[in-house]
């Protein structure tokens, strides 16, 4: 039933920690999901330091998906979009042939501090769309179907699952779901897609007689319904979809072509990328390697 369990690897980003889950050496992707970071949870003392901000940096070949349980983040990009994201909303940025953006804490966290907790995922683009035009979309709760019953509250963040479809434009068959489970509640993940996983963001769940806790991603074998039982109040993220084939990663770049990665690296190093119009200072330099 469970093919592999991936434990998050914690790292400090200058004021708060994230748990890197994907990519993992023994499991690079789940469906189109090629990157999965768990931000926090952390309670920040105000004012939030500038060292927490993620300065302007580039992407190609993917869509970034930001979803928060608590806090607020300000997105700015080279297309001119300037959009705060709050809990229950989705920022979906398609990099395509290239986009740069920053993520800053210019809202209440900057002034007063407070809780920060969320997930940032990257969804690889199909090879035919890797060089598509960059785009950005923001979606509120009205675009994201919800369900409640038998101790389960669920929100469909993107894609199709459980007979529902979110109003978020995706590029390949996939699903991304947020579950809130009361203690003792049971919920089933059906075999709609060949690649599926569940990530425990809060609490503890039981699958097939074994307990799993915060920071663990369970990657499931295809072909059968998986039942999760909450051993305590729990937040679980479900993700997966159709596989896209091998992808190469370097820093913030994803591509089916190593040559394309080299071109993107050279362009950023040479300063040939457009930057967010109101956020052009102090960019993140290209890492060595």
Q: What's the short story on this structure?
A:
42% of the residues are buried.
- Number of DSSP helical runs: 2
Low-confidence runs (pLDDT<50, min 5 residues)?
A: none
Order of helices and strands: EEEEEEEEEEHEEEEEEEEEEEEEEEH
Question: What would you say the CATH architecture is?
Answer: Sandwich
Rounded to the nearest angstrom, the distance between the terminal CA atoms is: 38 Å
Q: State the shape.
A: globular
The CATH topology annotation reads as Jelly Rolls
Tell me the CATH superfamily: Jelly Rolls
Quickly give the structural class. mainly beta
Main CATH class: Mainly Beta
Rg value: 18 Å
Overall pLDDT level: 95
Describe the sheet with the most strands: 8 strands, antiparallel
Q: How many strands?
A: 25
Q: State the helicity in percent bands.
A: under 10%
Approximate strand percentage: over 45%
Which properties best describe this structure?
single chain; 289 residues; mainly beta; Jelly Rolls; eight-stranded antiparallel beta sheet; seven-stranded antiparallel beta sheet; 2 helices; 25 strands; 6% helix
């Amino acid at each position: 039933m469970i093919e592999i369990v991936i434990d998050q690897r914690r790292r400090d980003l200058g004021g708060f920690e994230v748990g890197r889950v994907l990519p993992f050496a023994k499991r690079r992707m789940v469906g189109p999901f090629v990157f999965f970071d768990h931000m926090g949870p952390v309670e920040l003392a105000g004012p939030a330091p500038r060292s927490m901000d993620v300065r302007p940096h580039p992407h190609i070949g993917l869509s970034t998906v930001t979803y928060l349980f608590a806090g607020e983040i300000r997105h700015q990009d080279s297309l001119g979009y300037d959009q705060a994201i709050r809990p229950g909303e989705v920022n979906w940025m398609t990099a395509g042939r290239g986009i740069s953006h920053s993520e800053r804490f210019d809202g209440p966290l900057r002034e007063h501090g407070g809780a920060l907790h969320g997930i940032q995922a990257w969804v690889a683009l199909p090879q035919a769309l890797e060089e598509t035009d960059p785009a950005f979309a923001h979606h509120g709760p009205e675009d994201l179907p919800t369900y409640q019953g038998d101790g389960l509250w669920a929100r469909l963040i993107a894609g199709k699952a459980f007979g529902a479809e979110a109003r978020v434009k995706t590029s390949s068959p996939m699903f991304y779901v947020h579950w809130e489970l009361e203690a003792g509640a049971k919920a089933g993940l059906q075999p709609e897609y060949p690649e599926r996983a569940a990530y425990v963001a809060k609490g503890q769940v039981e699958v097939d007689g074994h307990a799993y806790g915060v920071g663990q991603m369970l990657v499931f074998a295809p072909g059968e319904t998986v039942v999760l039982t909450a051993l305590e109040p729990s937040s679980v993220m479900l993700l997966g979809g159709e596989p896209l084939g091998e992808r190469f990663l370097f820093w913030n770049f994803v591509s089916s072509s190593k040559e394309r990665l080299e071109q993107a690296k050279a362009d950023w190093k040479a300063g040939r990328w457009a930057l967010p119009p109101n956020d052009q200072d102090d960019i993140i330099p290209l890492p060595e390697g």
